[in-house]
Amino acid sequence: MIIASIFLLSISAVSWFKKPYVTICLILFLLPHQFILKKVFDNQFNSGDLFSIWKETLIIILLIKTYKEKELSIVKIQSLIVAFVILAVLFYVITDNHITSLANLRNYTFPILAFVIIATYKFDVGSKYIIRSIIYSSLIAICLGFVQQYLLNIPIATYKGTIDFIDDSGYIKYTTNSFRIMGIERMSGGFAGPNDFGVYFSLIVVFSVVLLSSTQRNLGSRLFNVITILNLIGSLACLILSFSRAGWFILLASLLVIFLIQIKSKIKTTFIVLVTILVTLALALAFIPETVIKASEVLTGSISMKEASAADRGNQFWKGVEKTITEPLGHGVGTSDIRYAESLGFFVESAWWNIGYELGLMGLILFLYINLQILLRIIHFRWYSRRYKVLFSFDSYAIALMVATIIAGFISINVVGTTYIYYFWIFIGLAFKTLNKSNAHPIFVNNNKNVNLLPDEIYDYHSEVNA
């Protein structure tokens, strides 16, 4: 308890006395390693539960600083978010098991709260530092993934608590079936499982592609560009070796959207993607040819619906639809989380239908409507910014990520994993920040004249500059 308390006090002090972007960097850097770190605090100091609130602690501090300095501007979407948070709290109150459902409530409320703070808080976004935090953290996750898969699988899995037993022949029986697919061992690194591992790296692959194809990144030395390229190759390898179909889908869907909206850098983006795929496959064929063959078997098995879990996705989807329609009032937070058997009432491999079961049809519609409203705002900004020089932002990445995630949420549960959902809302907040009227930096730079505009004011300004 003492070590965990010292850790929380230390990062809280950093968050309170440093600039806000430092806190965002801390969150983004630590998130991919939170599960293995929690196990360290659990196994060594018996204080994993206390450690696990570090994210929420930092977000609360940011929120206090926001109101303290009276810089939280009001946007229309905020009222919808407040309504969603209140609804989640109410459904937490009615649940039977408040202790086990608390983690679910935190994931409903704090990631979206992080979006509000980042999108509306007046501060230097520190893009260079945020981007480097993401890249360096993912490099650590890549290294841990390969160490786990090829060097220390049993020790790491034992430390994480994911092994049930090992029989006399050496066969490993995991606590869940997700650690293998069609008899193939899946890479999971320091994450709770291979699916969380895979969807995280789908985010990183797309982020690296957008970063490298950006003509305005201006992020520093050539060495960092080389590191980003190596990170892209390693991330793609980890994504493939995780055998996460949700991760593969998010990657492909995101890249498709990127190709559609990155008009000026489409050739460059295509080149980066193709070269990365070819290099990764060449290295894989050279060092792990059997894995490449197995990956192709899993892919074809999933597409042809011969793989068991893929074949059942259609049934899972329609089961979720039926349940949401026939029981639209909701059952309480945490009642569809398979981690808590004592409170489990229903579960399907669909994040959104599980939300519908927990928060009711109204909660699901409100959640998706919030996502749609944010997506439309960012698209609006992206369309308008094509006429002007735009400062570096996360807008194209956010659009691709939102489209892919909204679709994937109907066929996968993994988009509401803790690391993914926090990264998702933080990235969306960073993109949406450029729409904030109180932003310290200009949204558009036109004829050396700084112009700060909200979406509703864009049309008037567009008419004036073209009059």
Automatic annotation (TrEMBL):
Source superkingdom: Bacteria
Protein name: O-antigen ligase family protein
Entry keyword Kinase: no
Transmembrane segments: 6-31, 74-93, 105-121, 133-152, 197-214, 223-242, 248-263, 270-288, 359-379, 391-413
Keywords: Ligase, Membrane, Transmembrane, Transmembrane helix
InterPro entries per UniProt: O-antigen_ligase-rel_domated, WaaL-like
GO molecular function: ligase activity
